[in-house]
């Protein structure tokens, strides 16, 4: 059965208290205001990020002018690196990758103010594609920690591991000090162990990428003001890996599609403040859907997650410690352990979530976490169909009586405390 429940709770509050709709609405407004204050910082940088094209188009360098062949057999590493270094020496700009498959045998070392842009990233029968063929056991594109980077864009090309040659490359894109107003967009990453791993990543975007890796697809640490959106993550097969991991303040993770993966957590954030996780789609995923650890001011809304024929989402949303959570409008279908669970999290408000417990999952916010004092509202029903497993503080609208009633732990009572 799919249930719609509305819940808010305070841990450590010795008084149970059943607040009315106005108090619940005020709680929600207060937490959403906190979200907007922190997440608003991202909007302050949106124009600067979107204006990156104007910053990087001063110089356009074609790698073929430096001797790159692009036939998938000749080693083009030095030619591409020469183009990157030349562009940097001349004040920055764009390194262009024409159609072709450009074999590399060592990491391409990025430079500040230099972007790499191709003509396409997705291969089909009619596609024009720019491809970097990583014929090594290492990283394809590297941002060394000895440098800082501003206004860098990686866009419109594919990074493929040359597994035919017996290599299993590690990272497609990896490094530190991936600093301010940088974009990774429309990159296809496949046949690598890991996708994108960056630290100290500020006010940047990771968007519209397709990542098919064996292990973690996107790993961003100290990622302040970062937006991860519209990415497709497919095919992870490692129980210790994540689909998308971001730690920072503030961050947005939205409109991502994670499918056909066996992993530990599909979306994971920890030690973060000001988090928006919105409108992500998870299907055929073995593992936990959304896991939030030691984070504050988190808004989880309008996400869809579903176990399918080849996937089993054990836990839909799991909160572990932290403060100020809004969980709103999520659709969680056929999880097997918990739909929504909170352990040690304070000031949690969950409302208008659609929860399918038909596969054995339980909704344990306020039910199985000890000190929670809960307010829960279920769908309206008749006196004959009152919940048989109600938790203390649970509320629903009794259509036979024409009014809301509450469970006090022993009896159902109305707003005056009279047993009904």
Classified in CATH, the superfamily is Single-stranded right-handed beta-helix, Pectin lyase-like
Terminal Cα span: 26 Å
Largest sheet: number of strands, sense, barrel closure: 32 strands, mixed
Number of domains: 1
The helix content, as a percent range, equals 10-25%
* CATH fold naming: Pectate Lyase C-like
Low-pLDDT segments: 1-24, 52-57, 366-378
Kindly describe this structure:
This protein is mostly beta strands and 420 residues long. The protein has a single domain, classed as Pectate Lyase C-like (3 Solenoid), CATH 2.160.20.10. Helices cover 11% and strands 47% of the residues. The chain has helices spanning 21-50, 52-56, 77-89; strands at 2-11, 60-62, 71-75, 93-97, 100-104, 108-109, 114-118, 130-134, 141-143, 153-161, 171-175, 183-190, 194-199, 205-207, 210-212, 218-221, 226-229, 232-234, 242-247, 251-254, 257-270, 273-278, 281-301, 304-306, 313-328, 331-333, 338-343, 346-356, 372-377, 394-398, 403-407, 412-413. The protein has a 32-stranded mixed beta sheet that branches. It is elongated. The chain starts with a strand and ends in a 7-residue tail after the last strand. Mean pLDDT is 81; it is low at 1-24, 52-57 and 366-378.
């Amino acid at each position: 059965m799919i249930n719609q429940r509305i819940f808010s709770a305070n841990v450590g509050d010795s008084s149970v208290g059943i607040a009315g709709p106005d108090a619940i609405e005020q709680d929600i407004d207060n937490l959403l205001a906190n979200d907007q204050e922190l997440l608003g910082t991202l909007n302050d940088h949106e124009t600067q990020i979107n204006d990156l094209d104007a910053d990087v188009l001063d110089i356009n360098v074609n790698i073929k002018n430096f001797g790159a062949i692009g036939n998938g057999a000749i080693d083009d590493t030095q030619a591409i690196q020469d183009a990157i270094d030349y562009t940097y020496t001349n004040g920055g700009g764009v390194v262009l990758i024409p159609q072709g498959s450009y074999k590399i045998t060592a990491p391409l070392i990025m430079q500040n103010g230099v972007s790499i842009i191709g003509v396409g990233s997705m291969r089909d029968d009619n596609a024009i594609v720019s491809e970097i063929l990583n014929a090594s056991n290492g990283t394809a594109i590297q941002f060394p920690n000895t440098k800082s980077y501003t206004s860098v864009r990686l866009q419109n090309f594919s990074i493929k591991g040359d597994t035919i040659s017996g290599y299993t490359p590690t990272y497609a894109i990896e490094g530190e000090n991936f600093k301010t107003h940088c974009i990774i967009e429309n990159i296809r990453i496949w046949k690598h162990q890991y996708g994108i791993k960056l630290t100290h990543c500020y006010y940047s975007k990771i968007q519209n990428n397709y990542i098919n890796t064996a292990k973690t697809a996107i790993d961003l640490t100290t990622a302040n003001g970062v937006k991860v959106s519209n990415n497709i993550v497919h095919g992870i097969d490692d129980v210790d890996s994540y689909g998308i991991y971001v730690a920072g303040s503030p961050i947005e993770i939205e409109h991502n599609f994670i499918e056909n993966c066996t992993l530990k957590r599909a979306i994971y954030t920890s030690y973060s403040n000001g988090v928006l996780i919105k409108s992500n789609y998870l299907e055929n995923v073995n593992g936990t859907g959304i896991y939030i650890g030691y984070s504050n001011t988190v808004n989880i809304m309008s996400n869809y997650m579903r176990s399918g024929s080849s996937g089993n989402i054990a836990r839909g949303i799991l909160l572990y410690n932290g403060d100020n959570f809004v969980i709103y409008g999520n659709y969680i279908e056929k999880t097997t352990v918990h739909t929504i669970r909170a352990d040690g999290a304070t000031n949690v408000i969950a409302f208008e979530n659609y929860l399918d417990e038909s596969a054995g999952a339980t909704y344990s916010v306020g039910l199985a976490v000890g000190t929670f004092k809960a307010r829960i509202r279920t769908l309206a029903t008749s006196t004959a169909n009152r919940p048989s497993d109600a938790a203390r503080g649970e509320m629903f609208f009794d259509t036979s009586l024409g009014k809301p009633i509450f469970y006090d732990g022993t009896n159902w009572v109305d707003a005056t405390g009279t047993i009904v």
